[in-house]
Write a structure and sequence with these properties.
By secondary structure, this protein is α/β, with parallel strands linked by helices. 25% of the residues lie in helices and 21% in strands. The chain contains four helices and four strands, in the order E-H-E-H-H-E-H-E. It has a four-stranded mixed sheet with strand order 1-3-2-4. The longest helix has 9 residues, at 16-24.
């Protein structure tokens, strides 16, 4: 019997415009794996993403995991990286949204 298909929780960003749109309309925590096209995303992180995702209540509404190659990453994000340009070492950016609850 073949193994059961796993739910996709990591989504590739296809263009710089998609990247900008994703962070502009962001309503949850975004974890984006930035990588060189020749190196690819950090596949060893998939199990960590799954552990986080399936242990968070309403995860689909609260956290998103994405990958983005250098060619699709906006230039302002690349120039803002603290430790220099992308290399074969994993590099992640995290975008968080703060929520304010108002009670009457």
């Amino acid at each position: 019997m073949p193994p059961k298909a796993q739910k996709q929780i990591v989504f590739p960003i296809q263009s710089s415009e998609d990247f900008q749109a994703l962070i502009a309309e962001n309503t949850k925590v975004l974890v984006i794996d930035l990588h060189q096209s020749w190196c690819g995303p950090c596949n060893t992180m998939e199990n960590n993403y799954r552990a986080l995702y399936f242990n968070i209540e309403n995860a689909a509404e609260r956290i998103g995991f994405h990958t983005c190659c250098e060619e699709n990453t906006p230039q302002e994000v690349l120039t803002g990286l603290k430790n220099g340009p992308l290399s074969c070492k994993p590099r992640f950016v995290i975008y968080a949204v703060s929520y304010i609850n108002f009670k009457n």
